[in-house]
Structure formats: structure tokens, C-alpha cells
Design a protein that fits this description.
alpha+beta; five-stranded mixed sheet; about 725 residues; single chain; elongated; about 15% strand
Length: about 725
């Protein structure tokens, strides 16, 4: 029983005592004669009720000017004390009878906040050098074309770079604390790790290189990856983590297969045809006077075998063209970067303008040699066409990306192109010819009329890039990697059960949905879903999930006014059957968190069977967590909590904006729960379930009372 209830009972006891005294006074004669009192109503009751009025007024004033202001101050103080990061403002109540207590508490809170800011400033200064080194590492990692993954002994990712996400092509599954074997095959990694562990134990202290290469596949077994693993040792010489670098070798394997096809054809398939030609030629040479009919048979053999050899050689040339030469080191280039480099090299021709048109596209090649070749070709074009303006445009072809350079005038004749191809590229490329560089890139140059107002073009079919040309907005990769707390390296295998897991060791995915309406059973659909990962008490803003979903029905105007998502915005977006499996991959086995989670989970659960997924993850509700750390009668809406804890939010009423705001709220609430003695996930789940039952029971009672009152009326 709290103190407010106890004091209320005390005031009620005063009224009861006054009533008892009045009953005694008005029945004193009967009581003195040993008789039972007969006057219970009338004057005693009127007197008690008259006494109850001032008592109630006193209680009302005390509650209004003492209890309520004190409770408000207590709430803000507890929020400030129980969360290290909360910047809660202690506001003095407008009306109170607490004297100078609110101002004293406010001054004390200001002093505490100031001290915390000084501590944070000192910590920031002390870690400045570490952050600088961390920035260096980030830049180095982002500059690597190889994918980099650092994993602990539980095979969870501690660090990754953007190249790893690009190579694995599963941004939903790559993230801090995520399982490694969700993205690459398990057996090669475990085998290599065992080999290196044996090498470490056998060669302890010898300084032997603790790294090894291996070949694996991605999780879907659609790409071959060349990996290299290195052990990371702690000060005691034990393995605390391991580093893996990855390179996609699928194209190289395809090239090797095609080269092997050519080799087999040259050494086996063509041998029979060559033997037949040689035998026929030797027979004709040995018998010059061979009869006409016999000679015609041998001539037929010679012609047939020659045609078959010619056809086979052309077929092999088609297979081999561009693949062997593609072994030359090349990288993905943006067409606009290439054109800009060429334009700078043509600055000695001020009358010539090179204008980029169309959408930039990625190509593959050696940047320096391509810039040199295009520069030389444009200089030839200037002399040939006498034009002063050339337009550069990149176009998607079936297998190539066409780089077109157009001008006003006739096309270049084939004879002129042949002469240009034999010209030198200059000293930078050791006087290689244009033809040699183009052949290295598998480019067959040609010129033709455009059919647009007398324009012509020079076309260079470029090699297509390894990366996709376009990424949907929701799939864009984070520009920088998120860094994890490397203290996780010291964890050992054999984690305890989830219920016994400490709160600060859990991985959360905080999510939010936007819907067409509020009735999942009545046909309302999800139109947006977003989530953000929270690991080790940190909101990982670089690991988010956000998708728009086509609901298969119009979005009501009333809902649009709330979340701002229109029918035009979801037009062409994937259905829920495509998005929910992607979201499940992003969630993994993390604890799912939402504000008023039951509402969002109802919409998701109704789609599980249709989408072929099951969200059996444990679920936490920040609304119930707020009820656990604060009074039940406080405002626990997301807007109120965000304002109360000073959480900055952008994109309110968007799925991602609300998810990020809820994630920061979760971090604050977990800190307060830990301060109140909740240490494990199981303790929080038990208490939050109890809070949910109490809220449901209170709502049922309130509903029954209102129904009863209505019925009585």
C-alpha cells in the first residue's frame, strides 16, 4: 500500500471517528443504561457528513498541492537518476505547497546534469585518439575491394565493410552480432579454423603465420568465394576472434571453365579432324595419278573437314573472345568519371566541348588506358569531323554498356577507323596501339549514323560491371561500417538460456509498421515496415530495414493524413509476401521490440502462413516497460515518452522514424530497469507480462463499470 492510499484511509478514518463520536453523544443515555444505541441516522449522520466536507477539502488541497507536485518531481528525478543518458528537465509544478523544495531539487538536478556533461566531455577527450585511429581503420576498410569480416568465437560478426555487403548481396543478414553462417557456408570456415588452431598450438611462440586460404560459397550457394582467414590472438596467446577476407571468384571460375573448354577442344576434339585432313593430304600426295572418282572423294573429305574445323574454330573464338584478355586487372568505373577525365585532358583544345548526357552507368575496365584511348579517338574525331561539340552518353545493352560519342556530321569510314586503331596511345601506355587496348577490353569499335538531324556516333561496347547498375532506395548500403564493442571477443561458447541472458548482452530489433487502418481482421494491410538493430546498448543507425509495401487495396484518406503514404508511393512496390521474408532475415533470432507491440504483431502474425515465415522471436513492448519503471497513471504514449526523455526524432509517423525513436527509448528504459534491479531478460519478461495482465484487467473492470453505468442510466 503506497503512502497516498494510507493518508486517504487516514482522512476516511477521521470521518468514521467523528460519526462514531456523534452516535455516542446522541445515544449517551441509552449507552449509560447499558442499552444498544438507537439513533444511527439523523443528527449523527448529518454531523458526520458536515464534518466530511472540510475533511475532503483538506484532502483535495493536500493531494493537489502536495501529493501531485511531489509525484511529478519524483518521476522526473527517478528518470534522471536511473538513466545515464536521459537529459530530463526537472520542471517546477505551477501550483504547490512544497515551499522551496522544487527549486532545491531543480538546482540539484541541474548540478547533476552539469556534472554528467563534464564527465562525458572528459571521456570524449580521453577517447579522441582512439576515435581518430578508428576513423583511419574505417577509411582503410572502405577503400578495400575485398570483403572484410571479423567474427568472435561464437561466429558472430563484430566488424564488416561495405565490400562484404556488396559481395554477399544480403544486406538484411549482414550486421553486428549476426551469425556468420547465415551468409556463407559453414564447413569450409570451420575446417580452416580447426587447421589454424592446430597450427597455433603446435607452433606456439614461433611467430608462424596464422592465416590460410579457403574456398566457400555464399549462403544461397549461387556464388563462389575465395576467402582467407587470420587468427586474432589475445595477450595470453589464445584465439579471441578471426578475420576473413572475401573475393567473389564466380566470374573467374566461369572463365576457367571456358578456357578449359577451349583447351579440351584444341587437344581432343580438333585432333580427329586434323588427322583426317593430314591423312587425306598425304594420300593425295602419295598417289598423284589417282582416278578421278577417288580423287573427288578425297577432295570432298578435305572440304568437309576444313569447313568443320573452320566452324569449330569460329565457335571457340566466340567463346574465348574477351575472356582471356579480361584477366587484365580491371575495376568498376562510373561513366561520368571517365568522361570528366577525358574532358580535362582535352583542355588544350578550348574550342572543343565534351558534354555528358543521359544517366551515368557503371562499366568495367582499366581507367588509365581507357581514358588514354578515348582521348586519342576524340582527337582523331576533331580532325575528321571539324565539329566543336561532342556528346557522351552511356546506354545499357544486352550484355555490354555502350559508350556513345556523337557529333553533327557524317560517320567515320571503316578505313579511317582502321588507321586510328593502329595509332599509338603515347608514352603513358608504353606506346601500345589503340587496337591493343581495345582488344584487351574486348571492344569492337564502330561508327554509324544516328538518324537524328544528321548526327553520327562512335560506339565503344564496354564490359558490364560486376556490381548492379541500380540499387532500390531501400537497399542502399550504409556508407560506413558500424564498429562493435570488441569486448564481445572475450565471450566463450555455450551461452546461457535466453531468460538468464543479461539485458545489456541482448540483441534487439526495434520495428514499427504503418497500415491502411486499425482493423487487421477487417482487411487493413501493412503498407510500410521498418526496423533498426540495437546491440550492446547502442542504436546501430547504419543497420536499418525499411520497405514500402503494396497493400493490394486503396489507402483511405484518413490514414494518409496520419502517415502521409499515398497510393502513388506504393505503386509498383513489392507485396507483403516478398517483404516479410526479407524482414525475417533482417530480424534473425533477435528480440523484437515495438511500442504497443501487440498491435503490430497482430498484423504480422496474420500474414505469416501466407508469406511462409514464422516470427517466433521473443517480443518486448516499450509501453509495458515504461509502466514497469513509472506509475500506471502516467502518460505512456510514444509522443509523451519521447518528450519526457528528451529524445530527438525526425520522421515522426514514418515507420523508420518511429522505430529509431523507440530504439532510443528502449536504451533509456533498459538503463532504468537495470537501476531498479532487473538484470536478466527473464526477469523483465515476467514483470512485463504481469504489467500487461494488470492493464488488461483494469481495462476490463473500467469497461464493465462504464457498461454498468450506461445500463443503469
Amino acid at each position: 500500500m503506497d503512502k497516498r492510499t494510507l493518508i486517504a484511509l487516514l482522512f476516511a478514518s477521521l470521518v468514521a471517528f467523528a460519526y462514531a463520536v456523534l452516535v455516542t453523544v446522541f445515544n449517551w443515555e441509552a449507552i449509560s443504561q447499558g442499552q444498544f444505541p438507537s439513533v444511527w441516522l439523523g443528527p449523527p449522520l448529518v454531523g458526520a457528513l458536515a464534518f466530511a466536507v472540510p475533511v475532503y477539502l483538506v484532502w483535495f488541497v493536500v493531494r493537489r498541492l502536495v501529493f501531485r507536485p511531489a509525484r511529478r518531481i519524483s518521476r522526473d528525478v527517478r528518470a534522471l537518476l536511473e538513466s545515464r543518458n536521459a537529459d530530463t528537465e526537472i520542471t517546477s509544478p505551477p501550483h504547490h505547497a512544497l515551499g522551496d523544495l522544487p527549486e532545491s531539487v531543480r538546482s540539484l538536478a541541474l548540478s547533476l546534469r552539469s556534472s554528467r556533461r563534464e564527465v562525458r566531455s572528459a571521456m570524449a577527450t580521453a577517447t579522441a585518439q582512439i576515435n581518430e585511429q578508428k576513423t583511419w581503420l574505417e577509411v582503410i576498410l572502405q577503400g578495400l575491394t575485398e570483403g572484410v569480416l571479423v567474427c568472435n568465437r561464437n561466429h558472430q560478426m563484430l566488424l564488416y565493410n561495405q565490400s562484404a555487403v556488396s559481395i554477399l548481396q544480403t544486406p538484411e543478414a549482414v550486421g553486428l552480432g549476426r551469425p556468420l553462417f547465415q551468409v556463407i557456408s559453414r564447413a569450409p570456415v570451420m575446417h580452416t579454423l580447426d587447421r589454424l588452431e592446430w597450427r597455433r598450438r603446435d607452433a606456439e611462440g614461433s611467430g608462424e603465420d596464422l592465416s590460410a586460404s579457403f574456398v566457400c560459397t555464399d549462403a544461397s550457394a549461387t556464388r563462389m568465394l575465395q576467402g582467407r582467414m587470420s587468427l586474432i590472438l589475445d595477450p595470453d596467446g589464445n584465439t579471441s576472434a578471426y578475420l576473413i577476407t572475401l573475393v567473389d571468384i564466380s566470374s573467374e571460375l566461369e572463365m576457367m571453365t571456358q578456357v578449359d573448354t577451349v583447351r579440351r577442344a584444341l587437344t581432343v576434339d580438333l585432333r580427329g579432324g586434323v588427322a583426317n585432313l593430314r591423312a587425306a593430304a598425304e594420300t593425295i600426295e602419295a598417289h598423284p595419278n589417282m582416278p578421278g572418282e577417288k580423287r573427288r572423294q578425297f577432295d570432298h573429305v578435305l572440304r568437309a573437314e576444313s569447313e568443320e574445323l573452320s566452324r569449330r574454330v569460329d565457335e571457340l573464338a566466340g567463346i574465348f573472345r574477351g575472356h582471356a584478355l579480361g584477366r587484365y586487372p580491371m575495376s568498376d568505373l562510373l561513366s561520368t568519371d571517365l568522361v570528366n577525365c577525358v574532358a580535362r585532358r582535352l583542355e588544350d583544345l578550348p574550342e572543343v566541348k565534351l558534354v555528358t548526357v543521359g544517366q551515368p552507368l557503371w562499366i568495367q575496365g582499366d581507367s588509365l588506358s581507357l581514358v588514354q584511348v578515348i582521348e586519342r579517338l576524340l582527337r582523331h574525331l576533331v580532325r575528321f569531323s571539324r565539329a566543336d561539340t561532342f556528346y557522351a552518353e552511356a546506354l545499357l545493352g544486352d550484355r555490354r554498356v555502350y559508350m556513345d560519342f556523337s557529333w553533327q556530321g557524317p560517320p567515320v569510314p571503316s578505313s579511317a577507323l582502321e588507321n586510328w586503331l593502329d595509332s599509338s596511345c603515347g608514352e603513358e601506355l608504353a606506346h601500345q596501339s589503340i587496337r591493343e587496348v581495345l582488344e584487351r577490353h574486348g571492344i569492337e569499335l564502330w561508327s554509324q549514323a544516328c538518324g537524328r538531324n544528321g548526327e553520327s556516333l562512335l560506339r565503344l561496347p564496354m564490359i558490364a560491371p560486376k556490381r548492379p547498375q541500380f540499387l532500390p532506395e531501400g537497399d542502399r548500403l550504409p556508407p560506413r561500417p558500424e564498429f562493435y564493442d570488441f569486448g564481445l571477443m572475450r565471450e566463450h561458447e555455450g551461452d546461457p538460456e535466453l531468460a538468464a541472458t543479461p539485458l545489456d548482452e541482448l540483441t534487439f530489433v526495434v520495428f514499427d509498421c504503418e497500415m491502411t487502418g486499425l482493423d487487421p481482421m477487417g482487411g487493413d494491410e501493412i503498407i510500410s515496415i521498418a526496423g533498426v538493430r540495437v546491440v550492446k546498448g547502442r542504436v546501430l543507425s547504419g543497420e536499418t530495414f525499411e520497405r514500402l509495401i503494396h497493400p493490394g487495396r486503396p489507402i483511405p484518406p484518413a490514414s494518409i493524413r496520419f502517415h502521409g503514404i499515398t497510393d502513388d508511393q506504393v505503386e509498383g512496390k513489392p507485396p507483403v509476401t516478398e517483404v516479410l521474408p526479407q524482414f525475417k532475415t533482417f530480424v534473425g533470432d533477435a528480440v523484437m521490440v515495438a511500442h504497443n507491440a501487440a498491435f503490430d504483431m497482430k498484423f504480422i502474425s496474420l500474414k505469416e502462413k501466407r508469406c511462409g515465415v514464422s516470427f517466433d522471436n521473443p517480443v518486448l513492448d516499450t509501453l509495458l516497460l515504461s509502466v514497469m519503471v513509472e506509475d500506471e497513471d502516467e502518460d505512456h504514449s510514444l509522443d509523451a515518452l519521447i518528450e519526457r526523455y528528451g529524445i530527438q526524432i525526425t520522421g515522426r509517423h514514418t515507420a523508420l522514424g518511429d522505430a529509431i525513436a523507440t530504439a532510443h527509448l528502449l536504451v533509456t528504459l533498459v538503463e532504468r530497469l537495470q537501476s531498479q534491479g532487473f538484470k536478466t531478460f527473464g526477469e523483465v519478461m515476467r514483470s512485463s507480462n504481469m504489467a500487461a495482465q494488470l492493464r488488461q484487467r483494469e481495462r476490463s473492470i473500467t469497461h464493465q463499470n462504464s457498461s454498468g453505468s450506461a445500463a443503469g442510466a
